[in-house]
Every structure is written in C-alpha cells, then in structure tokens.
User: Fold Glutamine--fructose-6-phosphate aminotransferase [isomerizing] from Streptomyces shenzhenensis.
Amino acid sequence: EKGGYDYFMLKEIAEQPKAVADTLLGRIDAAGSLSLDEVRIGAGELREVDKVVIIACGTAFHAGLIAKYAIEHWTRIPCEVELASEFRYRDPILGHRTLVIAISQSGETMDTLMALRHAREQGSKVLAICNTNGSTIPRESDAALYTHAGPEVAVASTKAFLTQLVACYLVALYLAQVRGTKWGDEIGAVIRDLSRIAGAVERVLETMEPVRALARTLASKDTVLFLGRHVGYPVALEGALKLKELAYMHAEGFAAGELKHGPIALIEEDLPVVVVVPSPQARSVLHDKIVSNIQEIRARGARTIVIAEEGDEAVAPYADHLIRIPATPTLLQPVVATVPLQVFACELATARGNEVDQPRNLAKSVTVE
Ligand code: F6R
Assistant:
C-alpha cells in the first residue's frame, strides 16, 4: 500500500503534483475564471465581507499565514491568521461581515472545531478548507472547499499542505473575482500560473537527490535554523516544524529581517541555516535584503543552505549549498519552495533512525484541546 516507497511520507511527497492538479480540477473554467460552486456563500455576502480571519493549527496554520499575503494582495480585505487554540480565549472581534476560514486536513482537530463554533456563535460565516469528506469541521461550517490530496497517512503533513495552499489561492482569487479588484489583469495571469504549478512541483521532485545527500551529512547536528521573508517566512516555519516532528532536532524559523533583533546571536561556526529566497524579479528590495542577510550569517560562520529560483545568480556566491527551484510568481512560490524542506526533514529523520510515518508523541488527528 506504500506503492513501492519505504514510507507513506515519501509516497505522499511524490503524490504532490497530482494532489495539486486534482485540487484545481474543475475549478477553473474554459474562459480562465474560477467556478467554486461549493462555496455556498452568496456573491452578495462575499462582497460585504470586511475582514477575513483564518483559524488553523500546525501545518495548516502555516498555510493560513501564506494565504494572508495572497488574500490581502489580491482582494485588499484585511486578513488575520490565528492559532485555533488561542482564538476564542481572547474574545476576538467577529461579526456577520467577517469571513472565517478554518483550514484542517483531518476535519477533526478539536482546537479548530471549537474556534469555528465560537465564530459561528458570533454570527460569522465559516468556510472550511478540508481534506476529509464528511468530517466534523466541514459539516459544521457554512460551506466547504475540499482539497483533493487523497488520504494522508503519514503523521507529518505534506501533500495536504500543498493542496491547502492551492485552496487558499483559489479562495483569494475567487473573492477578488466576485468583488472586482484593480488587479483584474493580474488575476487572470495568476490563474494561468496556478494551473501550471503542478508541473513545477514535479520538476522540483526530480532534483531532490542532492538535498537527500546534504541531509545525511547533517544527521549529527543539534540545531538547524530556517529564514525567510514575505511568503518565505511561513515556509521557513513549516520547514522547522517538519524537522522538529520528524528528526527531533531543535529547529526554528525566523523572519530574516528579525535576525538583527536577536536571533543572529545564535549563529556560530558551521551552524546549518536554511534560507528561502524570494523571486529575484518580483520584489527586488526584498531579494536584495535577503542576499545581505545571507552574507551576514555566513560572515559569522553559518553553513548556508540556500533555496533559490533558477536563474537567481546573486545568491550563488554566498550559498554553501544551493537548492534550485523553478521560477514562480512570488505569492505562489511556497508551493515549490516547501518541497525540498519536506524531503530534507524526511531524509534527516531516516538518517537518525527515527520512525518517519509515526513520529514519537504525535497523532495524525488531534481530537483533544
Ligand atoms: C504537522 C502536522 C500538524 C497538523 C495539525 C493540524 O506535520 O501534521 O501540525 O497540521 O495538527 O491538523 P489538521 O490539518 O488535521 O487540522
């Protein structure tokens, strides 16, 4: 049932191009517009939305952090992302014009369920992004947009995460489409880019052998840091989470701009630091800044592991290890940039003799608060 792979996780990583394509299937019409029939919240109501609040846990929370960039950029609706386990305890400001998006692979996560119940009690509409048909979270929501990743067996989430990203982009673009937005042209182009992203994931998967080899050389390390900016920041958090749960290593993700506010003190000789570099074309200021961040940490002895787009030559001189990903529009980059981090964590877990599919102390769905 592992389809020839040693672990479900490896199988699920390999299934990602299909999972992504399946999640887009039938949702982009021939004219290149989105048709999301499942979102049974009326267009009128969606035009009235004045705030989006995303609630989720763990990896799904990281998908939500990335969604915020897309939602705010494409729709100009303010968006907050909150850990479901914190949400209701701070008496959040919710109303009938707040659209709450609950993201959950299993659809059974108790923290997320309790947060969504709280939101509905306050009169907000809840849209669930979920991978499990008929589970509790979509059943209790006003509408559901299913991710079509197929069953995810490994405890560490991989293909569900990529499809959560795709579903979030679809919702963001749909909101923009329904409301009309000054990004009209850009939206059409993004939908076209999104329909090509499964192919980009496929290409990343073909080039993962050096990442595996690198991971094996780091098996005796205690700590790995992850840095990113913009949408690369949640990708860094996700890379660190994967490493914690699978390799049982101390791993932390930081916004690269925060380095000088404290974390740079952690840098010491030969400390592995993974850096997710944004697209060089799109936001060049951002790109320049991360190049100088890489220089700063390398000057202090860090071993830099740089994930950068093909054709990005500016980073090459400062990368001890360079992992290439296909050039992608900035907001979509997490779909490809996360994949090497999944492979990296899986290989490190294997090298350290850990149980890849069943990490210690963890359960696939967390049905207690
Ligand atoms: C990490 C992981 C967890 C889940 C989290 C939420 O690899 O799998 O962090 O993402 O427990 O689970 P769902 O999405 O089922 O609500």
Residues 7 and 256 are 33 Å apart (CA to CA). Residues 159-179 form the longest helix (21 residues). The chain has a mean pLDDT of 94. Strands lie at 51-56, 79-83, 98-104, 125-130, 143-146, 223-228, 250-255, 272-276, 303-309, 321-325.
